[in-house]
Design a protein that fits this description.
329 residues, alpha/beta, TIM Barrel, two-stranded antiparallel sheet, 15 helices, 42% helix, 17% strand
Length: 329
């Protein structure tokens, strides 16, 4: 496992991290699935231990994942492990079984304290505003809360998990005002909206967490049009047969690179992101020990020409696919 410095902080993260959304299980808020279907805690615990064995030291979760269950499971399994990095998030809320957001200082301070309790830790290494928008940042309450928590020693560093389809406004606001230490952003073969942010983040010393590297499994090649997700799996409405078919057809030229590099689709998808030096850590969702091995093995750096090929795809065919995906939410 290789390790990269997270921006200008003293955190050194494994290139592959543990995305802990899925181990939260098939949580629902009202009729809306916010999880990945049923999960088995014993299987999840084995996956966490396999990750440690593979050299993974970065675990990313959120208080909304499984409505706290993901944090609880990490806390139970990783208690006493001081050589790992825990990143979690606050701001997304279920109230009266309705999804909402709350970036008030009062809520974020309370949410952080609850996360610390579930994680069984005295300090969170990296605490994130969960997709706060520009208006929230400009009001300043959420920034005040993060700085307060940092002074109290309840968090070491903080940053922002950016919007999936329009990440620039919030990222530029924080960088221009020199607030926070990093960003979590969507980055994969299909969604390259965050690429323009990388040079500025590198120049200003912000760490980068790349989420959704496999687009909910779509970029592993394991799904076909016959796949049927359960009602408590958010992918049921996101990975429709139409999207799966369209992506398989459009990505065919990109997948030809697998022959050149003698790799599978997962390895190509992850290696593409890691080929950008400003990226600190990539966090595929991990549910099983087998997925740990699949996500950590056979990674490489793409040639410059192949990087340009993928970027050209993203600006053209990928943009049309992304608009289809965006309509599904």
């Amino acid at each position: 496992m290789n390790y990269r410095q997270f921006g200008k902080t003293d955190l050194f993260a494994s290139e592959i991290g543990f995305g802990a959304w899925a181990i939260g299980g098939g949580a629902m808020i009202g009729d809306t699935a916010i999880g990945w279907g049923r999960s088995d805690d014993d299987t999840s615990i084995k996956a966490i231990h396999a990750s440690l064995d593979a050299g993974i030291n970065f675990f990313d979760t959120a208080d909304i994942y499984g409505l706290g269950h993901s944090e609880e499971l990490l806390g139970k399994t990783l208690e006493g492990q001081n050589n790992i990095i825990i990143a979690t998030k606050g701001g997304n809320v279920s109230r009266d079984n309705v999804f909402t957001v709350d970036y008030s200082a009062e809520h974020l301070i309370r949410a952080c304290e609850n996360s610390l309790r579930r994680l069984k830790r005295e300090t969170i290494d990296y605490y994130q505003l969960h997709t706060a928008r520009l208006s929230h940042l400009e009001q300043g309450y959420c920034i005040d809360a993060m700085q307060f928590l940092q002074k109290q020693g309840k968090i070491r560093y903080w940053g922002l998990s950016l919007n999936t389809f329009d990440p620039e406004p919030e990222a530029k606001y924080l960088m221009e005002n020199e607030k926070g230490s990093g960003f979590q952003l969507v980055m994969n073969l299909l969604n390259q909206k965050a690429l323009p942010l990388l040079p500025m983040a590198a120049e200003k010393g912000y760490g980068i967490i790349a989420r959704m590297p496999l687009q909910f499994g779509l970029l592993t090649g394991k799904f076909d049009e016959e796949v049927n997700f359960p009602e408590n799996d958010h992918r049921k409405n996101r990975l429709t047969p139409e999207i799966i078919k369209a992506c398989a057809h459009a990505l065919a030229p990109v997948w030809q690179l697998c022959k050149k590099y003698n790799c599978n689709k997962t390895q190509l998808s992850l290696s593409y992101i890691l080929s950008y030096s400003p990226v600190s850590v990539v966090i595929p969702g991990i549910r099983t020990a087998a997925q740990v091995n699949q996500n950590c093995a056979g990674l490489f750096k793409l040639d410059k020409g192949d990087m340009l090929l993928v970027e050209d795809f993203g600006m053209n065919e990928g943009e049309g696919l992304l608009q289809m995906i965006k309509k599904q939410g």
